[in-house]
Amino acid sequence: MAEKDREKWDLRYQEDPGDLSPSPVVRRYICLAAGGKALDLACGTGRNSLFLAEKGFRVEAVDISRMAIDRVSGLHPGITARCLDLDTWEIPENEYELILNIRFLDRRLFPGITAGLKPGGVLIFESFTGEEEDRFCLTKNELLHAFSDLDRIHYDETKLEGEGRFKGTACFVGVKAVHKAG
User: What does the alpha-carbon distance between residue 69 and residue 64 come to, in Å, rounded to a whole number?
Assistant: First the structure.
């Protein structure tokens, strides 16, 4: 499965590198993160990784596509790009001040995303929604439930115009609580 996924995404990025400007939700909520180490899951060709690195983050950019990772590798010295199969990779616990998950969905990673944030760490998550159960689409309010352990800063679901499998997007921004001793 991983090799087929890699080939699919390598071909996609060869034909179309995608949008090169950072995601609007990342641009809007980056101010919540104090800096430090960031994880960009399924980073694609690095639009958000580059933005984070330019803001002073040490970015770990991960994607299954070798072509995408080759492009990301040379963008900025603050980016460490790794070609990984996210279907099997485990996010290190208590490692990141910021985790991005933009337009990618692997529900298996939800617990690891929360665990991977340091206390006070920020999650910015945006993915597509659909009308029915679909492994590539979120259901209504799914992110609210999946990340209920985080303090919610922002949540919205927006409909997309047109036909097709993707009916809209859901966006969640949250902060992992800082537990005080005592």
Answer: 8
Q: Are 39 and 96 in contact (CB under 8 A)?
A: yes
36: left (phi over 0), alpha (psi -120 to 50) or beta: left
* pTM of the predicted model over 0.85: yes
**pLDDT digits over 26-55, tens only?**
999 999 998 999 999 999 989 999 999 999
DSSP string, 37-97: EEEEET-TTSHHHHHHHHTT-EEEEEES-HHHHHHHHTT-TTEEEEE--TTT--PPTT-EE
> How confident is the model at residue 162, as a pLDDT?
58
124 vs 15: CA distance, rounded Å:
28
| Sign of CA pseudo-dihedral 56, 156, 112, 103 | negative
Q: What CATH number does domain 2-13+24-175 carry, 3.30.428.10, 3.40.50.450, 3.10.450.50, 3.40.50.150?
A: 3.40.50.150
